[in-house]
Amino acid sequence: MKKQVVVLEDNPNIRELIEYILEDNEIDVVSFDTVTAFLNALTEISPDLFILDIMLPDGSGIDICQRLRSNSETRQTPIVMISAHFSRMPTDCDAEDFIEKPFDIDNFVARVERQIA
After folding, report:
1. Given CB 3.0 to 4.6 Å as the disulfide criterion, which of 47, 65, 69, 91 pairs with 6?
2. Verdict on whether the full-model pTM lies above 0.85
């Protein structure tokens, strides 16, 4: 059974690149460009990994990370934060990994696969 990754990324070029990379590695991807769309679908998805951009037009990936960690259904699901505006993991988010944009594609895939293994 294929693994599923949920991506919350507002930049359409980066979101499409991530979708392409992961689907090319036989990983199902469900992506969202806003916090609102993500939250509206949250009860209908059960991914193996969340990839969250930190800075979003209608909210913060950090707030979403905290919300996922406080929810009993998503508490154990790994989270990878990504950002072009931060150089390291924010301390107020309990994510498993942080990837700075721009990222190396091979490194990105390896880190995602490590989280969903």
Report:
1. 47
2. yes
